Amino acid sequence: MGIISHLSTNLLTPQLYISLLPNSTSPYSPTPQLLTPQLHIMKTGITGCIGSGKSYVCQQLRRRGIDVYDCDTAAKQLMRTDAVLRRQLEALIGPDTYRNGQLNKARVAQFLLASEHNARAIDSIVHPAVFRHFEQSGLLWVESALLLQCGMARLVDRVVVVTAPLELRLQRVERRDGITREKALEWVGRQWPQERLVGMAHHVIVNDGHHDLDIQIERLLAEG
Q1: 47 by DSSP, 3-state: which?
Q2: What distance in Å separates the CA atoms of residue 13 and residue 146, rounded to the nearest whole number?
């Protein structure tokens, strides 16, 4: 969920908090009383390494009528339109963060890539704004490349990790972004290993071109 997806490339690893659903309690009480059912609506977070195809999976969900909150898109929008966020970024980066009211992407990228400390400082401002925006959106599904790394997993009830073999992920990134294999490997190397994400997932979708994606998505939806 960085500012510019391929610039932050998972540099940020704030402490992870994952909320677990509390154990359900008995609806019965020793004294007679009128009980009001409390319904919990499940929220789902979708993540995965670069090139895994998580955005494609989200496209398939939207085709099924499911609105999915896109953290990358939201972050870029909020950096353009949220007055408080703009002031915070200007205080951090400098008065040239915006030019003629528009985000100076070159300046932001320069600051972000200067050090890991700078990248963390930017995301410490942007992430909370996106968290709030997601919660206010009322949507139940969210896509975030940094769902587990930035602590956003605490806002959802289950984590879905989209996976694909490393070679296929590299090919996808090279083709999509027009970059060399070396650069693609560099981006992948800055991220958490896919195995680590899988170990923290409630559900895994294999997007390798062999496992039927539609069947996997239908199974996910059938779970709730």
Answers
A1: strand
A2: 9
